[in-house]
Design the sequence.
């Protein structure tokens, strides 16, 4: 996210209407308007909490809107178009560095690693070596976003300079990256699930590495809200966090078939087999957070990755911008 975009974002807000929304309603329940940055199997615990009734048990009604992009998600949150945002923790660092009227506070973690995989067009996991990327065309993610920063961090870790050793393409909109690769662009691509598994099954390439396993623990996707909302709605956020924690436990205890059944309503165009395979791939590498607590170690690792990418505006105070009180409380019950 460019700083000039953030400056404009903080000066002028537009309301982002729901492009994709799922909700359940319960009489006399508390409603939370939740904006998710994209629709992804990477966010499976959220959909589990909705589908398995964990929010309903907490007397909560979730109005879920997919805002398709970090800038749009934060615009929705800052302009009161939503109460809570599910988005990369780096967006809170970008926005808070601009000193908004109300700070953005991270209060519960959903995913704890990068969710992208490296797909190779002409080699398999058995033949893959990071050195093979040198001189290739690499279809990367949007500059300044967490997928791109984690991707570059991993490339450098494997002695690849992404701006010297590759023909790096990163000017394609997030929603069109998979289509660009499918149409023949790039030797390698960085993809989320289920696109990676779907493309592998279609013979478009092979998943050869996991950026999540390579980059380590980071607060990759986090629930956040404005400081005033946290102060006013503490009991509501405690209930919300409890439902998320139940879902995090459920997904690590359930069968692939049970997980697929819970997620299918949110992915109409994806088979249950692919949903199950994708979710289990994330679970096996522990991409889904096992608790909603956002640790200081993970927060510092996130900022180290941002700094390495040249995108960190300034170090962000963990004690000031992370509030684990509800996450710690529900875990200790």
Sequence:
């Amino acid at each position: 996210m460019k700083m000039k975009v953030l400056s404009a974002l903080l000066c002028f807000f537009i309301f982002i209407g729901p492009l994709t929304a799922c909700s359940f309603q319960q009489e006399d329940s508390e409603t939370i308007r939740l904006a998710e940055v994209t629709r992804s199997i990477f966010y499976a615990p959220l959909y589990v909490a909705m589908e398995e009734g964990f929010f309903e048990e907490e007397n909560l009604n979730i109005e879920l809107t997919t805002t398709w992009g970090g800038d749009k998600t934060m615009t929705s949150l800052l302009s009161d178009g939503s109460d809570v945002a599910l988005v990369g923790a780096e967006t809170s660092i970008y926005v808070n560095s601009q000193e908004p009227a109300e700070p953005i506070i991270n209060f519960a973690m959903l995913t704890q690693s990068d969710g992208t995989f490296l797909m190779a067009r002409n080699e398999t996991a058995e033949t893959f070596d990071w050195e093979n990327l040198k001189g290739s065309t690499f279809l990367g993610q949007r500059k300044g976003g967490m997928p791109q920063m984690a991707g570059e961090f991993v490339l450098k870790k494997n002695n690849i300079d992404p701006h010297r050793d590759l023909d790096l393409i990163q000017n394609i909109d997030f929603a069109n990256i998979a289509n660009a690769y499918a149409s023949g662009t790039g030797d390698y691509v960085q993809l989320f699930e289920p696109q990676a598994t779907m493309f592998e099954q279609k013979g478009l390439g092979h998943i050869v590495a996991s950026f999540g396993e390579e980059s380590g623990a980071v607060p990759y996707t986090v629930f956040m809200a404005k400081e005033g909302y946290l102060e006013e709605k503490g009991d509501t956020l405690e209930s919300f966090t409890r439902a998320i924690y139940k879902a995090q436990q459920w997904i690590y205890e359930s069968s692939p078939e049970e997980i697929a059944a819970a997620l299918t309503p949110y992915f109409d165009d994806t088979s249950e087999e692919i949903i199950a395979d994708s979710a289990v791939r994330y679970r096996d590498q522990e991409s889904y957070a096992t608790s909603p607590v956002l640790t200081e170690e993970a927060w510092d690792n996130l900022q180290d990755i941002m700094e390495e990418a040249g995108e960190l505006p300034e170090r962000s105070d963990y004690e000031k911008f992370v509030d684990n009180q509800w996450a710690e409380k529900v875990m200790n019950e």
Observations:
- The chain has a mean pLDDT of 92.
